Amino acid sequence: MRIKKRGLFGILLLALMFVLAACGGGSESTSGGSDSGDKESKNSGGSGLKDTYTVASDTSFVPFEFKENGEYVGFDIDLINAIADEVGFEIKLETTNFDGIIPGLQTGSFDIALAGITITDERKKTVDFSDPYYDAGLRIGVSVDNKDINSIEDLKGKTVATRLGSTSADYIKKNIEGAEASQFEQLDQVYLAVENGSADAVLYDSPNVAYYIQTKGEDSLKMVGELYQAEQYGIAFAKGQDELVSKVNEALATLKENGKYDEIYEKWFGEKPE
């Protein structure tokens, strides 16, 4: 009987030692797990930010986002990467047609989007925006031999090519009497419509019109008129991400203060912002 009691005592003692050892091992693992990479540590300490966000872009809006040598490049791409580094999160880039960006944010397919998206009161009803990061407007492009169109007034009754779902499409419908807004998903199709004569002119965001005419359309198109309807681009967010919007705005301000924004701007537009 004594042997059995001693045996039972020994078993209980060994079990207690095992439990204490296991508790000590768990404490060491927790300590080691907290010392992770820089981006993860920036988002720790009670922050509601995620480690990775899905970012939507169109990638046919040169020089803001486009594909070159198999990689996505451009002003917007460099900017969002710099912001992500500053805030401390990773990016999963998704591409879609421009008119699918805001619906994608609404359904939760994307967290963030930037593709030269103009900040408007109408869009603010469905998505949130960062502080403005680029000042733009609308410009007219016509064939180099066109002498009839020199201003917005000359577009009355004309067929004007633009991008599907853009603010320029709304502008044509609301402000140019009798004009037909011929809308295309891809920007190359917009300019091709003017080059092949199926549209009289293009009306679209000024930096893209200028860039196309300086590059691919150098011998076929020219810009006419003034800069119309001043616009500002913003980074768009799915609703309900107030902390993320705040952190992105802080990062954007920091990049403008430390010169990184100017560096990215000059890389893609050949000059520093005014």
TrEMBL record:
Residues 52-271 form the Ionotropic glutamate receptor C-terminal domain. The gene is glnH. Keywords: Lipoprotein, Palmitate, Signal. Its main location: other. It comes from the Bacteria. This is Glutamine ABC transporter substrate-binding protein GlnH. Residues 28-48 are annotated as: Disordered. One of its GO terms (cellular component) is cell envelope. Residues 52-272 form the Solute-binding protein family 3/N-terminal domain. Residues 1-21 form the signal peptide. GO terms for molecular function: ligand-gated monoatomic ion channel activity. It is found in: Cell envelope. The keyword rRNA-binding does not apply. Belongs to the bacterial solute-binding protein 3 family. The keyword Membrane does not apply. It comes from Siminovitchia terrae. PANTHER family: GLUTAMINE-BINDING PERIPLASMIC PROTEIN, MEMBRANE-BOUND LYTIC MUREIN TRANSGLYCOSYLASE F.
